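User: Can you write out an input/output pair for a complex, sequences first and structure second?

Assistant: Here is one pair. Inputs:
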Amino acid sequence: MQGVNWVALSVFVLLFGFISWLGFAAARWRKGDLDLLHEWGLGGRRFGTLITWFLVGGDLYTAYTFIAVPALAFGAGALAFFAVPYTIVVYPLLFLVFPRLWNVCARRGYITGSDFVRGRFGNRWLALAITVTGIAATMPYIALQLVGIQVVIGALGVSGTGFMADLPLIIAFLVLAAFTYSSGLRAPASIAIVKDILIYITAFAVVIVIPIQLGGFGKIFAAVPAQKLLLAVPGPNTTGAYGAYATLALGSALALLLYPHSLTGILSASSGRTIRRNAALLPGYSFVLGLLALIGFFAIAAGVSKLPEFAGGFQHFHDNYAVPALLLHSFPSWFVGVAFAAIGIGALVPAAIMSIAAANLYTRNIHREFINHNPTDKEEAQIAKWVSLIVKLGALVFILFVPTQYAIQLQLLGGIWIIQTLPSVMIGVYTRWFNSWALLAGWAVGIITGTRLAVLANLKPTYPLAFAGHTFPGYTAFYTLLLNLVIAVVLTVILNAISGRQAKDETLAADYCA
Amino acid sequence: MSDARGKRGGWSWWYLLFIVQFIAVLWPPFYNHAEPYFMGVPFFYWYQMLWIIVSAVITALIYLLTQKH
């Protein structure tokens, strides 16, 4: 790898220092009593339309997304663009389901999705299943954010051996852990504003400057190999790449909002109306994501993978190095510093929210439900703060000692797991027709089958489902969700026929309306 | 949930407009071709990028149509 890029590194460190200060100062922003869990863990449910836009945008469009989607375009081509239909179909779900969920959560004091399921279905074991799924799916996601930081630190030319090699990452994480502990959700909310402005600047600079350098979009797409430019047209008796593309988009959209960090970001909004407005405004980020996906093609056209100065980086980080290499190749050092800071800070925002979400889950739905039923408000907030530290430490240890590939594969499994909570959470917002034990059975079958199919498919996201002489390659999470739903429906009918008795629903129809 | 109807948080027929964007982007045969190019960008890419904007407009429209004061 090339030597240290001092100019870029200085800009990077300067911006990083600024947001660290901001993270600590955020404790005093819209001041609330941080000894209350909903103040620490949900920012007091007080964020208006604009702050919610920055926060949820920074939460859902993570640094890893900004590295991995272009990397997938660089490596696999058109398939990577499924991220675009994915982010298009996710917003109707946000618009239709989450204002109702916000209303009931605000009225009943729920902080997590499991709180809602517990109240709605009155089944603590179903709520526990939702909780464990959420935590398990979040952990590798946090670890992946670190990969984003690792790649840009490596690309800045900072290298060393042994402990020294990991030191920058450890420092970044200690800072993150400290301001999350002291400021709660207010820290990522304030940092997200800085981070998103940097991301927008970077994205538009890249999309304007690099095509000019490379001689226009026509030349760029001409350099992309034909088999990468479009999806492969399916042969006879299979839905081929088309089915895979559509189910990846739809399944990812269904899974995204079920992640605990999505819910934490959404529930911190000040009203259901704020969420609705954001369903129309958040596509601004989708547009940037689409532009960034194209950067993968810019990297192909610029031929960065063949340049000797980047050989080491590609060897170490593989396709994930495509974006950093292109930025280094095309921009002056000071701007590289800005762009890398955008990616690095972009990792801290979701990592902070994810650890807060996991902490809220543990505190409310495991500790309070199964260990100490009546903690004081202060004890509850204190437990959450400690858990947020433990969760981040776990992610750091994971990424330092376990190959990156495992984090990516676990995150893939996480998507398959989290989607199994859809019938309880998303459909639960509209109806409690389902029997809670039937939901639990559907969840279990979905998790087990999904994990098994993913392993059979060598931990690739799609599984080639064979049926009546046809093959339907599709997103494993989507297929297993359908199975989950069938089981939940059938068992509900059977269980209701045997015994009409249902646990009490503590929510009222009026709770769901503004 | 029939008692919720009519109040905010209930159902509106305008929500069916959302189906348009699902069909437009989840059926790849509609857009899996390179022609026509737009400023050198193949159809596959600019069509989907365009739908980000169209879907945002549809969502904003539904918001305005279902917003009660």
